[in-house]
Amino acid sequence: MDFKDLFLFLTELQQNNSKEWMDANRKWYRSLRNDFVLWLDELDATFAQMDDDYYPTPGKKAIIRINNNLMFHPHKPVYKDHFGGALDKAPGTADFYIEVGLKNCLLAGGFWRPEPKILRSLREGIDYNGEELKEILDRPSFKKLFGELYHDEKLTKAPKGFENDHPHIDLLRNKTFAVVHELKRDDVFKTNFKKKIEMAYIEMLPFRRYLNNAASV
C-alpha cells in the first residue's frame, strides 16, 4: 500500500471536494481503493491466525465508504478526508477500526453510540460484573496504549433502572464504549506499522470480548 500516494490523493480531494473532481480522478481513487482493500485483506488473514474467535471480514466488506451521508449531515463535505476499515465485524459486535487520514490516523474499537438495545445490554453487563471491565481498563499496558474510554457525551445522572450511588456509575453514564490509539502520520510510513496494528488488536481483545459478551445477553 502506497500511503504517500494515499495522502496525496486525500489532500487534493479535500482541496477540490466535489463530485466533478472525483469523477475526473476516478481511476486514481479506484487504484488506491483496491490497494487499501488488499491491505485490509492481509490484516484480515493475520488476525484470523492470531484470534481463534475472529470473524472473517474481507477488505471489500471492511472498507468504509468515502462518501459522507449528506442526507443526515447536509453540511458535511461530499467526501471524507480518510480511508477507513472495520475488521472482526460480526453483526451487533464491537469491531476493530483503522483510520488513515489527513486529520486523524488511529486504531480504535468498541461501540460508538450503540442502539438502545445494545446499550442497555452493556449497562446490564456492567451492573452484573463491572469489576472485570475496570480491571481491563486499568491494566497498565492497556492504559499506556489507549488511555481511558473515548470521551463522548455522557448522561448527567444514572440511566433508567440504576441508582446514582451505583459503584460503577461513571461507566454506566457512558453512551459510547470505545477506546482509541492515536497515531502520527509518520507511523503509517514506518516498517513496523503492521506490527503496531497487531499489538493494538491483541491488547484490545479482552475489552472487545467483554463488550461482545455483554451485548449478546
Number of helices: 9
Mean pLDDT: 93
The biggest beta sheet is recorded as:
4 strands, antiparallel
Give the helix level as a range of percent: 40-55%
Q: Which residue ranges are poorly predicted, with pLDDT under 50 across at least 5 consecutive positions?
A: none
Describe this structure in words.
With 217 residues, the protein is α+β, with helices and mostly antiparallel strands. Strands 1-2-3-4 form a four-stranded antiparallel beta sheet. It contains nine helices and four strands.
Topology:
Blueprint: H1 3-15, H2 19-24, H3 26-50, H4 59-62, E1 82-87, E2 95-101, E3 105-111, H5 116-138, H6 140-146, H7 169-172, E4 177-183, H8 185-189, H9 193-215
Antiparallel strand pairs: 1-2, 2-3, 3-4
Question: Can you give keywords for this protein?
Answer:
217 residues; alpha+beta; four-stranded antiparallel β-sheet
Short description:
The protein is of the alpha+beta class. The chain is built from nine helices and four strands, in the order H-H-H-H-E-E-E-H-H-H-E-H-H.
